[in-house]
Design a protein that fits this description.
Blueprint lengths: L7 H11 L9 H16 L5 E6 L5 E6 L10 H16 L5 E5 L4 E3 L4 H4 L4 H6 L8 H4 L4 E5 L2 E3 L1 H8 L2 E5 L3 E3 L13 H9 L1 H10 L2 E3 H7 L4 E3 L4 H13 L3 H13 L5 H15 L3 H11 L10
Parallel strand pairs: 2-3, 3-5, 4-6, 5-7, 6-8, 7-10
Antiparallel strand pairs: 1-2, 8-9
Helix pairs in contact: 1-2, 2-3, 8-9, 12-13
């Protein structure tokens, strides 16, 4: 993936001066985040993640969390970098799917506790702490989390924000926030319950106990389990397969499935029908059906 290269320090220093943003309305926290985002957007340089494209057609976005000394703990700076990388992949018309992973030792061992330790209620409430973490959920393109090692706390929540989870054989999932005197704050109590049911989720949230990869697969949290040294490649193969379909129709399908978690069955069926009808307005629907009748591969144009 091509990024424009420029001097990060120069961009960050001038970000607030050259923008048309109403600076008087920005709080100090917002100002810092805005400057950081401008820096990463313009320079394309990341401190806490590695960004690349994968696949034979380079149509798979690839994000690797890269804070090895902290077991990929999710600090605010890292999450902003993930947000920016997702924005770039969303804007890239050649990318059909995004793979998110960590290291073989840890997908992400949780949120950065040192960063949260001294925050007050007023800070987290008024500042909507963790609100921007949901960028993964809002991504229109499909996302695949590849979990090796620990996916604990915020790491587990981050994986669950993705559409599909592949796990290495030694992966461990958990929501240990109760052991720190708090509760999950980025979807752990909600998405985990949807994924594995109330009883199992309640046990994990109330005790902080972990779930291994095989149990996670049996419970429905994980799609497939592979050896640790193969799982990333398998996820990339899946992402390539998804990217080979019509990107616009893939996004419709993703919306339809995700809606099932949000609404009643009747509302979900109505939404599915609406999106099904909408697919008839696309060139790719016509091409797909014509190719089937003519017994040839479809040539989708994402239109």
């Amino acid at each position: 993936m091509a990024f424009r290269v420029s001097k990060c320090l120069s961009v960050c220093g001038k970000a607030l001066m050259t923008s048309s943003v109403n600076h008087a309305a920005l709080t100090p926290a917002m100002t810092g985040r805005y400057a950081l985002t401008r820096c990463m957007s313009s320079a394309g340089g990341y401190k806490n993640i590695l960004v690349d494209t994968k696949g034979e057609k380079a149509n798979v976005g690839f994000i690797q969390l890269n804070r090895p000394k902290a077991l990929n703990a999710l600090c605010d700076e890292l999450m902003l970098e993930v947000e920016q990388a997702l924005n770039d992949f969303e804007a890239d018309k050649t990318i059909g799917c995004v793979v998110l992973t960590g290291s073989e030792k840890a997908f992400a061992a949780g949120a950065d506790i040192k960063e949260m330790q001294n925050k007050s209620f007023q800070e987290v409430y008024s500042g909507s702490f963790l609100a921007h973490w949901d960028r993964l959920k809002r991504t229109k393109k499909p996302t695949i989390a590849v979990v090796n090692g620990f996916a604990l706390g915020g790491g587990c929540e981050m994986a669950m924000m993705c559409d599909i989870i592949y796990a290495g054989e030694k992966a461990q999932f958990g929501q240990p926030e109760i052991l720190l005197g708090t509760i999950p704050g980025a979807g752990g109590t909600q998405r985990l319950t949807h994924a594995i049911g109330k009883s199992k989720a309640m046990e994990m949230v109330l005790t902080g106990d972990r779930m291994n990869a095989q149990d996670a697969k049996e419970a429905g949290l994980v799609s497939k389990v592979f050896p640790a040294d193969q799982v990333v490649d398998e996820a990339i193969k899946l992402a390539e397969k998804i990217s080979g379909n019509s990107k616009i129709v893939v996004q419709m399908a993703k919306e339809a499935v995700n809606t099932a978690y949000e609404v009643s069955l009747t509302e979900g069926l109505n939404n599915e029908k609406r999106l099904f009808y909408a697919s008839f307005a696309t060139d790719d629907r016509k091409e797909g059906m014509t190719a089937f009748v003519e017994k040839r591969p479809a040539n989708f144009t994402d239109q």
